[in-house]
């Protein structure tokens, strides 16, 4: 979805070097803003910080990113940089004390959980987007508390590495509702048959309650209630897609007790 950016600069030009070989740059306060559209929802956003730009690249320390209307905006702080040499590369590291996705994505006729699921599905289905990236992107997000579908998801950490013609790589971990946790580290296959391949560590100590919660994101999660156990711990190498999952060298611990 286009970001439709606008930039406002308040600073000064810099010049380093001699004569025609000098490097023209900029240092000062920069505000980049715009509106993007997420699954039928218009989301205004604004990125603010002290920026340094030169022929070698661009960097912004102590950056603040706000997404959403003011009364329900998500706020994250951190830094980002873009380097031209030896190859184009962008690095992003953002932290947020709390991300209330219900306030950002929710609507009376479209719960936030279902909208988020649709956004993830759309992003993974668009393999052409990843192949067209002009630079490698390494992004990290940390949030001790995320509100989604009326519940708190804690200790959220996500590391994503994107590069044209390579499979996206992701490391993700979080403490989920219903005394559950998840940790993934592997690659994502994009396109119509999107899939995750890599290491997975999952703990679910109350499967019926977890299934009830996950149906707020995907109605098919109710199938978890059909499992013959109440709790499960699983770790190992997996291949997961919308069709099913295959595991290798798995360590399983099952609990049938009520």
- The total beta strand count reads 14
The largest sheet, given as strand count, sense and whether it forms a barrel, is: 14 strands, mixed
Note the beta-strand portion: over 45%
Structural class determined from secondary elements: mainly beta
Query: Please, what is the oligomeric state?
Result: single chain
Strand-and-helix sequence, N→C?
Answer: EEEEEEEHHHEEEEEHEE
> How confident overall, as mean pLDDT?
88
Terminal CA distance reads 46 Å
> What is the C-alpha radius of gyration, as a whole number of Å?
21 Å
- Spatial shape: globular
List the total number of helices.
Answer: 4
How would you describe this structure in keywords?
mainly beta, 57% strand, globular, 4 helices, 258 residues
Short description:
The chain has 258 residues and is mainly beta. It contains 4 helices and 14 strands.
Can you characterise this structure?
This protein is mainly beta. The protein is built from four helices and 14 strands. It has helices at 101-105, 112-125, 127-131, 207-214, and strands at residues 6-16, 23-38, 41-54, 57-67, 74-83, 89-95, 99-100, 136-148, 151-162, 169-176, 180-189, 195-204, 231-241, 245-255. Strands 1, 2, 3, 4, 5, 6, 7, 8, 9, 10, 11, 12, 13 and 14 form a 14-stranded mixed β-sheet that branches. Strand 8 and strand 9 form a beta hairpin. The longest helix has 14 residues, at 112-125. The chain is globular.
């Amino acid at each position: 979805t286009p970001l439709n950016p606008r930039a406002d600069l308040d600073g000064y030009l810099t010049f380093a070097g001699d004569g025609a070989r000098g490097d023209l740059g900029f240092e000062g306060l920069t505000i980049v803003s715009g509106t993007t559209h997420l699954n039928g929802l218009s989301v205004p956003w604004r990125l603010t910080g002290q920026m340094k730009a030169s022929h070698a690249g661009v960097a912004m320390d102590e950056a603040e990113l706000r997404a959403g209307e003011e009364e329900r905006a998500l706020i994250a702080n951190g830094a980002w940089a873009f380097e031209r040499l030896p190859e184009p590369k962008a690095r992003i590291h953002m932290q947020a004390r709390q991300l209330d996705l219900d306030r950002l994505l929710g609507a009376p006729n479209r719960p936030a959980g279902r909208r988020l699921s649709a956004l993830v599905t759309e992003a993974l289905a668009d393999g052409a987007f990843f192949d067209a990236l002009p630079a490698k992107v390494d992004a990290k997000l940390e949030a001790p508390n995320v509100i989604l579908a009326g519940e708190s998801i804690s200790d959220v950490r996500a590391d994503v590495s994107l590069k044209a013609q390579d499979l996206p790589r992701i490391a993700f971990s979080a403490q989920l509702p219903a005394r559950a946790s998840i940790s993934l580290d592997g690659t994502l296959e994009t396109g119509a048959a999107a899939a995750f391949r890599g290491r997975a560590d999952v703990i679910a100590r109350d499967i019926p309650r977890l299934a009830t919660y996950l149906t707020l994101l995907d109605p098919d999660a109710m199938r978890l209630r059909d499992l013959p156990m109440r709790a499960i711990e699983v770790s190992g190498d997996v291949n997961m897609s919308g069709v099913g999952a295959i595991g290798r060298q798995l360590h399983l611990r099952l609990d049938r007790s009520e």
